[in-house]
Amino acid sequence: MGERLEQRGARVEVVRAQDELPDPREFQLIVPLGSDDSSYDESVPYLAREFELLRTAIVADVPVFGICFGAQLLSRVLGGRVHVNPTGPEIGWLPVHTSQPELVAPGPWLVWHLDVIAGAPPGAMEIANTSVGTQAFVHGRHIGLQFHPEATVDSATIWAEHYRKELAEAGVDYDALLAETRECAPIARERAHALTDRVLEHTKILSGER
Predict the structure, then answer these.
(1) Is 111 in a helix, a strand, or coil?
(2) Which of 85, 161, 172, 185 could hold 167 in an S-S bridge, CB 3.0 to 4.6 Å?
(3) Within a 13 Å sphere around the CA of 104, how many CA atoms are in the beta-carbon half?
(4) Measuring CA to CA, how many Å separate 120 from each of 19, 73, 136?
(5) Any idea which residues carry the catalytic annotation?
(6) What phi-psi label fits residue 78: left (phi over 0), alpha (psi between -120 and 50 degrees) or beta?
C-alpha cells in the first residue's frame, strides 16, 4: 500500500508508535497499522499517545485509514468497543461480506487478529464483515479495516514464524497458510493497489475536496 501511495505521488513517512509521534495535522492521511498489543490494554506504554494522535487527526479532519490494530484503535477513538474474540483467533485468506464492493472488495484478504471490533462505532457504518465480526467500517472520511491488505509474503512469513505455536493451537496449518499466501501474492498486490486508489477517492485527498 505504501508502494501504491508512492506511485500516486505521495511522500510516505513510516513512524513506530513507540517513538516520538508527529503532529498529524502536517499530513494528508494517517495510516495506523497492526500491533501485537491490544487496543484496549491501557498498560501499553504508547497507547495513549497513538490514541491522541488519531483524536487530533479526526478533530482536524485529517482522514485516518486504520488497519487491524489501527482500525480497532480508530473505533475506540470514535467511541466504539473492541474485545477479545471468544472463539479464538481468526486467521487465513478469507472472503468478506461487503455492502460496498466499490470501496472494499470481497477478497479474499489475509485476516489475522485475536480481538474483534464490536460493530461500527457511533456515527459509522459497517460495510464488511465475516461471521466473527466487523471487517470494515466508514465514518465520514475515515476508514477502518480489520483485515490486512498490506500483507506481503515476507511479512506473513514473519508473523507465521513468530506465532507458529499459536497457529497450531488455533488449528491453522503453518505450511498451508504460507503456501496459500505465496499463491495469492500477485492478485493480493493488485487488490491492495486498487483498495488504496479507492481510499484516496473516498477521502477526496487528490481532488482537494472535503
Answers:
(1) strand
(2) 172
(3) 27
(4) 29, 12, 8
(5) 68, 148, 150
(6) alpha
In angstroms, what CA-CA distances link 29 with 36, 74, 105, 186?
A: 23, 13, 21, 26
| Nearest-angstrom CA–CA distance, 146 and 133 | 9
Q: Given the C-alpha cell 506465532, which residue does it identify? A: 163
Grade residue 18 by pLDDT with cuts at 50, 70 and 90: confident
Claim: this prediction has a pTM higher than 0.90: yes
- Only one residue has cell 461487503, namely 98
Cell 467511541 belongs to residue: 79
Residue 75's H or E segment, with its range, is helix 69-77
Which residues touch 66 (CB under 8 Å, ≥6 apart)? Answer: 31, 32, 54, 72, 73, 74, 75, 142, 143, 144, 145
* All cell numbers assigned to 128: 464488511
